[in-house]
Sequence to fold (107 residues):
Amino acid sequence: MHWRKLPYWVLAPVGLAFVGALALIWYHPAGSPAWAIIGTVACQACSLFLTALFWGRWQAALSKDERGSQSPYLDRILSTHWIRTTLINASAAFLLAWMILELSTGT
Fold:
């Protein structure tokens, strides 16, 4: 059952990414742009919020649905997965842009 692997392969990385984003609020290079901090935290928080609101519930319902690949929950998850993927990639893009900016200014 895939739920047993969830803590290791999903929850731990997502939790570490969110804690890391939150840590950047207090621990960041001097003069860091606010857009980078806010963007990173906002993308991570939005992804977690939407997962709790929609995707997590749909995944739980899918695990109990006997229709398997014919389940409407799977359709919902697959048709909206791009939103979660975009949020996580946007968070990474904020971090990358921030790092490039920091390296180019030498601070």
Summary: The CA atoms of residues 18 and 24 lie 10 Å apart. The chain has three helices and no strands. The longest helix spans residues 72-105. The mean pLDDT is 90.
